[in-house]
Amino acid sequence: MNIDLNGHKGLRLWMHTLTDIVRSRDFNLTSRQLALLLRIYLKPPPHTVRGLAKALNVSKPVITRAVDTLSALGLVKRTRDDADKRNVLIGRTVKGAVFLTDFADKMETAHHTEENENV
Question: Contact at 8 Å (CB) between 68 and 32?
Fold first, then answer.
């Protein structure tokens, strides 16, 4: 079966962006970790493990493992909820914001590269 995906601009954009990320050697995030990171930064807080698990339709241990990795890298932080000490809130960090800004810049560059290749 031969399926031509070259016409899918979004896939080529994603390929160029991920290639730049891999070459940069900054962080080696899984797609799950990246999806979680984007959700934390693009959706308004507060973010809890329970809420993130529900939003991504995965188990709480899956979120906990991803947060462990992202936290160890300094891309997110954990804090206790002042209103309910049983809850742990997952928050943003400067390092995480810088990483995602760089990621967005790489996507912009990939988009312009893609446009120039099609001219």
Answer: no
Residue 47 backbone zone (phi > 0: left; psi -120 to 50: alpha; other: beta) = beta
User: 90 and 47 in contact (C-beta within 8 Å)?
Assistant: yes
Domain boundaries, the chain: 9-117
Angle between helical axes of 9-24 and 94-117 (0-180°, round to 10): 130
Tell me the CATH architecture of domain 9-117: Orthogonal Bundle (1.10)
Is residue 119 scored above 70 in pLDDT? no
- The partner residues of 48 in beta bridges, in order of sequence, read 89
Q: Give this prediction's pTM.
A: 0.83
